[in-house]
Every structure is written in C-alpha cells, then in structure tokens.
Design a protein that fits this description.
By secondary structure, the protein is mainly α. Helix content is 92%, strand content 0%.
Length: 130
C-alpha cells in the first residue's frame, strides 16, 4: 500500500511540475508583457520624479550653504581689513608723535581719515558680497 501511495504521489508531483512549464497562449503572453512594460514604465517615472525631487532639494541645500559660506567669508574679510586698518592707524599716529604743532595735528587728521576710508572700503566690500 505504501508503494502505491508513493507511486501515486510521484505521478501527481510529476504531472504538477509538467503543468508549471505549460506555455501560455500568445495573447496571454502579449497581455502579460504589456502589463509588465506598463508597470515598469510607471515605476521608472516614479523613480525619476523622486530623483528629481531629491536633486532639487540637494541643489537648494547647496545654494543655501554657498550663500552662508560667502556671507561668513565676507564678514571674516571685513574683520581682517578693519584690524589691519586699525593697526596701520596706530603706527601712523605713533609716527605723528615725532612732529609738533600743526604738522602733528595734520598728520593725525590724515591718519584718522585713512582709517575711516579703510573701514568704509571694508564695509563696502563686505556688503557687496551679501
């Protein structure tokens, strides 16, 4: 009995496997291919939309970071220019101390004017970058 059941199970298994490899009709294949192509095109379009959105967000982020970097650099350059102008002013004032009277006053006035001009130039450079 066990042999008959085993033989019957083997025959059924072979028949079911044979049925799995049964070719579909050309119209079924055409329909399945068309459906798969349509689904694939839809998936590709969705992936392209997602990619475009991601790239857009990344570009926006990069532009924002670049603007922030430019602003930071402009502020840093301003600080350096003002520090240099103030240092040059101190040196000029010390040199003016060698003079006396009106010459000393004119020298200090020129040093003050040079400082004001350098600060104005630094501010214009900083504000022009922003």
């Amino acid at each position: 009995m066990k042999t008959i059941n085993a033989l019957a199970a083997s025959v059924l298994c072979m028949l079911s496997l044979a049925a799995c490899n049964k070719a579909e009709s050309p119209s079924e294949v055409s329909h399945d291919v068309s459906s798969a192509a349509s689904e694939s095109a839809h998936d590709v379009n969705e992936a392209r939309k997602d990619a475009a959105s991601s790239v857009g967000e990344a570009n926006s982020s990069v532009a924002s970071e670049m603007a922030e970097s430019a602003s930071t650099a402009a502020s840093a350059n301003y600080d350096v220019a003002v520090a240099k102008a103030e240092g040059d002013h101190k040196i000029a004032i010390e040199k003016c101390e060698a003079l006396s009277g009106a010459a000393q006053k004119d020298c200090k006035d020129k040093a003050d004017a040079a400082l004001d001009s350098a600060k104005a130039d630094a501010k214009a450079q900083r504000d022009g970058v922003r």
